[in-house]
Amino acid sequence: MRQRGRHRRRRRGRALRGFLAGTALALTAAATLISASQATVTDDGPGALKPLAASAGTGEPALTPRSVPRADLDRLAGAMGRPVGVGAVLADADGALRDADECATAERADLPVSPAATRAYCWNSGDTEGWEPGAVTTSGDADDDGVWGSNRVVLSAWSHTGGASGDRDLARVAFVDANDLGRLTYTWVLLAVPVDGGRDYRGLVSHVSGMVWYQNKLLVTADDGDTAALYVYDMNRVQRADVTGEAVGRTDGGWSAHGYRFVLPAVGSYELGGADAPRPTSISLDRSTAPDTLVAGEWTLDGGDRAARLWRYPFSTAAGHEGLLATGTDVRVRVSEAYETKLTGVRGVLSYAGAWYVSRAAGAGERHGVLWRQSTAEKEGARAAECGTAGSHACWSTRTESLSYWAETGEVWAQSGRVLFATPLSTIASTASEHPARLPAQ
Fold first, then answer.
1. How far apart are CA 321 and CA 113, in angstroms?
2. Which of 121, 223, 279, 399 could form a disulfide with 97 if both were Cys (CB 3.0 to 4.6 A apart)?
3. Per the confidence metrics, is the pTM higher than 0.85?
């Protein structure tokens, strides 16, 4: 039986690779239809990254840590029941993603043209209607062996965009069981914030454009328009909800999580300052540095006149601070590196082995975005894949808000529209290197 199963998986793998390759060819053909004006949006490229001094004048977004009192968390756990871990959530899956060959043509159109995805899965519309896709992180971020406990996991964030005003912008995360890459199942977990001394909780109200799972902590970007923060969640503190209604928090009948069976309350946050403070909106993990670092990118308007900034924050190596960022003598988290990119419309950002990968969302009239490979070396400048007869750089997915590198497998995971996909980092790097951007004459 095991031998037949291996043959089936091999045939399925060959079929999937063929299907994705065929999809990439079809999308490449479609890309040739882009008009000349659209194809030249990024022809000049953003050039090399400009290092910024970590000092006044760079708009350094120093972070101020805030912790939810342990007594509040214990009070909440005492009322709701003993917290559970990731394994318990995965074991209670209630949904399944569709494989690439089951995705609709419109869904596959959100995949990159070049470099092509080697894995792709689609979310069911009935389970995501009224929800906006956001950031992605994996157990490859959480632990360098790629496994959390005995599980390989992908976390996918979504934010509510419709419904009543009380439901709008609620944030949830799909805990995806990735142990069998031929069949991904998932469970929804509502993100929450304890209130009233741990006697209740409210839903996190924000679009989640950035998310990193590092060790036992999950860092999540949040911005309500007036203030911005990175919320901190403990992956060992998932709570079960015992009421299935639409309410969020404590009810007469027990604890409700907007219809979901699990809720994850925040254990702290990193505050980013007032309305005028720089706001990192895309974050990812870089395990190629010592210590490991959190990298962040600033959201900018497509075609705007202001350069975007990229930052790097070191993680703590102190005992008892697992998964938390390093703080200085002033008990604040300071930037260790800062850069400026001329790229506009910045969305996802990833750094590994000295290279930065920055995605630009699809512009007006474009179907696809761009994924630039940048460094500080002037001779290398910025590079991106080309596709279509016009040599357009608009080859990446429609809108990718986060990039997550799974070092154990060498794959970059991302999400665009209703599609979750993965592409080898080596392919991204080589594709970009083969097609240097046309930089302006000096």
1. 41
2. 121
3. yes
